[in-house]
Amino acid sequence: MTAIAARAAAMPALARGAVCVLIADLAFASMDALAKGLMTRHDPLQVVWARYAMQALLVTLLFAPRLRTVLRTQKLGMQVLRSAFMFGATVSGFFAFSLLPLAEATAIFQVAPLMITALAALLLAEPVGPRRWAGVAAGFVGAMIIVRPGAAAFQPAALLPLLCALCFAGYSVSTRFLGRTEDWRTTFLYTAGLGAVLATLWLPLVWTTPTPSDAALMVLLGLLGAAGQLMFIFAYTLAPASAVAPLTYVGLVFAGLFGWTFFDDIPDGFTLAGAAVIVGSGLYVWRRERLGSAP
Predict the structure, then answer these.
(1) Per-residue pLDDT tens for 68-98?
(2) Residue 108: what pLDDT?
């Protein structure tokens, strides 16, 4: 374990950021699949509450000895805004997964890296050159290959993953902004705390008592959400948002696999072709960055 940690520490910051994004992709895709299953038996708002309540409990226990110190922030407004972005992404995303096939909703969500790249260039003054734009655009084309725009993909429910993508882009860029000055533990705690408070407000209106097995799945849901959040905080602290954003496309591959395994949503040739384009575009941008070439 010590040798693995030493090798990880020796990796360039961009490479470590990329690894964190990939871990977050897997954690969030697992969480989404689990949430979709739970929402067949519970209201989506109750599942949102479970996701945040478990994460809030976990981070409170984790940071209990230094809770007062961790709560201190010089950018309270930005912390609240970032947390609100993530909460909006979770609510709109969970409702999307309850109404659409997992892979389809995730594919529509893949406009998020484009939004992240644009916001990073406009708000963070990060350099975004033609190669990076080309990689992100190629990933978007891959998503469109999977969606194959038409009546089914662009039903009103398809607006939910688009809203989720917009909120996620705001969350990603604000995470990068806070990562310049704020302790990652503070950012992590505020995200969990605000989400838990907001979700608890409506809980009495939608509550149904879960079975022991569903209660255990809700705990796991919160743990996966916490892991994904933590990895994204590390990723956007280590690397430019616009550089690692294309790697979020890999989450589409995980979503397709989980949809196939658990919901009998078998990927067709278009899905496999689009996934190949998406993964290739992310790896291209990441490779260009590792070589230290122009953005």
Answers:
(1) 888 888 888 888 998 999 899 999 999 998 8
(2) 76
User: Which pair of structure tokens corresponds to residue 21?
Assistant: 């994004």
SS3 content of the chain, % helix, strand, coil (to 5): 80, 0, 20
Contact by Cβ (8 Å): 168, 84: no
Q: Which among 149, 241, 227 is positioned nearest to 192, based on CA atoms?
A: 227
DSSP state of 157: G
When pLDDT is cut at 50, 70 and 90, the band that residue 149 belongs to is low
Distance CA 55, CA 70 (A): 16
At residue 2, the pLDDT reads 47
Which of 187, 269, 259, 192 lies closest to 225 in space, CA to CA? 192
Calculate ∠ Cα 250-254-255, nearest 5°: 110
Average pLDDT, the chain: 81
Residue 176 tokens read as: 């990068």
- Copy the structure tokens of residue 111: 């406009």
Helix (H, G, I), strand (E, B) or coil at 127: coil
Q: Half-sphere exposure (CA, 13 Å, Cβ side) for 131?
A: 14
Cα angle value 239/113/199 (rounded, 5°): 95
CB atoms within 10 A of CB 223: 17
Q: What CA–CA distance (Å, rounded) separates 104 from 122?
A: 29
Which residues fall within 8 angstroms of residue 172, CB to CB, at 6 or more apart?
Answer: 112, 116, 119, 232, 236, 241, 245
181 Cα distance to chain centroid: 22
C-alpha of 194 from chain center = 17
Who's near 124: CB < 8 A, 6+ residues apart? Answer: 173, 176, 177, 240, 241
Q: What is the CA radius of gyration of the chain?
A: 18
pLDDT tens, residue by residue, 167-197? 988 888 887 777 667 777 888 888 888 999 9
Residues 117 and 128: beta-carbon distance below 8 Å: yes
